[in-house]
Design goal:
By secondary structure, the protein is an alpha/beta fold. The chain contains twelve helices and nine strands. It has two domains: 168 residues, P-loop containing nucleotide triphosphate hydrolases (Rossmann fold, 3-Layer(aba) Sandwich), CATH 3.40.50.300; 90 residues.
Amino acid sequence: MNIAELPGDIKSMIEKRKRAFSYYHEEMIGEHGFLAEDETIFLDAAIALSLGKNILLKGPTGSGKTRLAESLSNLFSQPMHSVNCSVDTDTEALLGFKTITQNEGVNRIEFIPGPVIKAMEKGHLLYIDEINMAKPETLPILNSILDYRRMLTNPLTAEVTRAKETFGVIAAINEGYIGTVPLNEALKNRFVVIDIPYVQGGILKDVIKQESKLNNEKMIEQFVRLSSDLLVQVKSGIIPEEAASIRALIDTCDLAVYMDPLRAVRRGISDKLEEEREKAAVLNIASTLFG
């Protein structure tokens, strides 16, 4: 990504954050490995985060949303705390929980901070993956940390936490998936939304080389073609979106190093699908490429 294209004051903000976090080592900072045909995706995300905006990444599974978040963490040299949402995500999963500890024979109730509190107190990044999988009644707790207040009254302790200036929030959603719910408009309006499209063509070839063990040029080209053909089927409604997941494709490429590529497609992609007609559609496409 050509960071030189960023405005001078934005680059100054990035350098300021790097200096602020040069002494942190306890939270992993992701590699700068996000690849996309549209370079403005990364540049715009960097600008928005530099300006203190919250970012909502929208895109299909395996499109690189988490990789983008890790790349931003790397760009700012800023540690990142993650929340992986599910239907079971509750207030404790976000904020932390109380536990009983013993000190010199005396039992005490101690609060163990969760990822939201840690990120706010340390001024780190907070990554909320699959935010639209969480229960709608859980998410309003985030409203006050996502607007100008940047503070939270913890319902578990009644304490007020105010975020440090460098605190930033990146969230990610897959719209329309089973178990997801539409985001409340009041919550969505607190984000700058960035669409992450499917990776295709030459960029996908680079992703496979970067992320998988496969180094056979001809086979890589075949898998790029497979991805393109699967995406056509997804858009036609013949197979579900997860069949064209880049994550699944990378798994399949890894398997293809050690087994027949058609068998790798079966293990890595088609057998994950529920309906026999969907499995057959994937294997029919793969058989035309791999024989």
